[in-house]
Structures are given as C-alpha cells and as structure tokens.
Write a structure and sequence with these properties.
Vanadium-containing Chloroperoxidase, domain 2, single chain, mainly alpha, 213 residues
Amino acid sequence: MSAPTPDPSDPLAGRPYGDTLGDEDPGVAEVAPSPADAFAPVARFDDAVDRAFDRLRGRPAVDRVMYGASALGDFSLVWALVGSVRSLRSERDEQAFVRLVAGLGLESLLVNQGIKRLFRRARPVVTTDRPLHLRTPLTTSFPSGHASSGAFAAVLLSDGSRVPALWCAVALVVAGSRVHVRIHHASDIVAGAAVGAALGLAVRRLWRLPSRP
C-alpha cells in the first residue's frame, strides 16, 4: 500500500512528527517543549557538583571522614548523641534535648513518609565499587533526609548556643557526605536543607525554651 500524498495546503505536510515551525510559518502553533526540559538546569547542577566531588573521592582520609559522617547521619544518630551529651549540663538543655528528639521524629516522618513518596526520585547510579561500607537506604532520593535532619538539628542546637557555626558546619559535612558517597544528588541536599531549616525555625517559634541564666 503506497503512502498517502501530502496535502500541499497543509503547513505541516512533509515535516516529521513533533517538528516545530519558526517565524517563517506564522499562525501555526509551536509544539510545547518536553516536561523534561524544565529539569535540565537541575541535572546540570547535579552533574557539576558531582564532578567537583570527584576531586575528593579516592583520597583515603577524605573518604573515611565522609563515609563516617554519612553513617553517623543515619537515623539522626549524630544529633541524638550531641543532644544527649548537652542535656547533662542544665535543665534547659534537658528540655532542648526533648524538643530535638521529638522534632526529629516529626521531621523524619514528614520527609521520609511524606515528601519522598510524592517525588519518588531515583538515587544516583553507581558503576564503581565504593571504598568503604555504606548502608543502602530503602527510601527514594528527593529530598535528602540527612540534609533535612541536619539543618533541622542545626537550627535547634543553635538556639542559645555560643557556637552556632559549629552545628551548621557539622550539618554541612553530613549533608555533603551524601553527595560524596553518591547516595544523593546535589539538588536533593539543597531541597532537604531548605525543608529542615524551615521546620527547625517553626519548632523554635512554637516550642520556646527558657532563657539561659
């Protein structure tokens, strides 16, 4: 059966499916861009950050720090340890510890059982062997729970602290470690940190601690 003869009066005749018309074809609507195009800048950002971390990967000392930080961030372990040690100092710090642990539980529920289920983003593909052991999470990638819990904890631990920059630095290392070990995309980290910081500020406002003597 022979192909139908294109209608010369049809402005799209002879063009491949999905081809767009330029200014030389006025009055003909252009085909909408693919939805994937909206995420192209995010993909470029993730690739650029991943390439930057390639300069650090494979260095034994850096790998040990990053893999250790990633492990300590599992289940917010590092923040529970810090909070428990600080709780020994005063009654206010005991209250701060309770607030931190309760808040981290709510934050984890919201991020891991809420937001992640909405996006269901795949984690980075790893084609090489990792130099150290790493627990593989069962949840999806976006946003990063490590970054979210870290930012949340840093906001609460900074409340009345003399060294707020310390908690921000620890949170940054824990969050960055997830890119280093290729468990998260960089954009997962940014989104997770934003969510965690917002939740932390909300908890600080709603659950105020007494002033230090």
